[in-house]
Design a protein that fits this description.
The structure is a single chain. This protein has 279 residues and is an alpha/beta fold. The protein is 52% helix and 15% strand. The chain has 2 domains: 8-149, Conserved hypothetical protein from pyrococcus furiosus pfu- 392566-001, ParB domain, CATH 3.90.1530.10; 175-277, no CATH class. It has 10 helices and 6 strands; from the N terminus they run αβαββαββαβαααααα. Helix 1 packs across helix 3 (92-103). The longest helix has 25 residues, at 8-32. 27% of the residues are buried.
Length: 279
């Protein structure tokens, strides 16, 4: 590395000071940009898998993992930030011992990670990951256990994103969409998933009343998507009414407006006669 003295102990001390300085500068930059408080916090593994819903796990054995994919921790340690830079001097002694060993070319055991989607979480080896980052490495050897989840981890950047994933998981339990439909229905505001779930269930109840038979949740979800959601979204696209919202947000908006009109207007024969007369 540039600026090395050739003395492992002195260089390890400089490595730590440099990593601490970068961590402080990163916090300052986030504050100046008014970014969320959690932008530099390591993602908590247990909160992530709880939000996504665990299906199972499997051991993958020894793997080579990109350091930039390691974004969280199992024990929610506060000793390192999102890029595993030390957040205090508390870890200095152990950190520098590992940095000295790395610089001397000594063997360092692989870390232990959990994999969720394309994200990795440290179970054991926080200091080793931090030192690897500081030394400019791009990959690290790790024993990896993959965790399979109901909802994909794609799109998680900060801790706040977990709220959306959690509400989406609950929505998909109520409205079990599959395949293309599952990916197409997406909302930004987590609270909207609850409203959409109630809307689909109400639509399904009216459908069962019309047909005089019971339909399970999967059948209701599939028919709602094909017979209600897709045609409405297509009309919104043609009318250029989607705007900067997601298509699902546009659909939810027009569905709410339709419900409001039903609740606030009389649609009896006299009203319809008057409307026809004004055409």
């Amino acid at each position: 590395m540039r600026g090395d003295t050739g003395f492992p102990r002195a260089d390890a001390e400089n490595d730590f000071q440099r990593a601490r300085r970068r961590q402080v500068l990163s916090r300052l930059a986030a504050w100046l940009r008014r970014e969320p408080d959690d932008v530099n916090i390591t993602l908590p593994f247990h909160e992530v898998v709880e939000a996504l819903g665990v299906v199972g796990e499997k051991r993958l054995g020894l793997c080579t993992v990109r350091l930039d994919s390691i974004v969280g921790s199992v024990d929610r340690t506060r000793d390192f930030d999102r890029r595993f830079r030390p957040t205090s001097a508390r870890v200095r002694a152990r950190w520098e011992r590992l940095a000295i060993a790395q610089r001397r070319g000594e063997a360092v055991p692989p870390v232990e990670l959990y994999r969720v989607g394309d994200l990795h979480f440290v179970q054991d080896g926080h200091h080793r990951v931090s030192v690897a980052h500081a030394l400019g490495l791009e990959v690290i050897d790790a024993y990896v256990t993959e965790v399979l989840t109901r909802v994909a981890a794609h799109g998680i950047r900060h801790r706040g994103d977990l709220i959306v994933k959690d509400y989406r998981r609950l929505f998909l339990e109520r409205v079990p969409l599959g395949g293309r439909a599952r990916a197409a229905v997406a909302l930004s505001d987590p609270w909207d998933y609850a409203e959409l779930g109630e809307h689909v269930e109400a639509w399904g109840f009216r459908l069962m009343q019309d047909e005089g038979r019971f339909l399970d949740r999967a059948s209701v979800a599939a028919r709602w998507y094909a017979e209600e959601y897709v045609p409405v979204v297509e009309m919104l696209r043609q009318a250029d009414l989607v705007g900067d919202r997601t298509e699902t947000e546009a659909y939810l908006w027009v569905a709410a407006e339709r419900y409001r009109l039903i609740r606030t207007h009389r649609w009896d024969p006299d009203v319809m006669t008057t409307l026809r007369a004004r055409r």
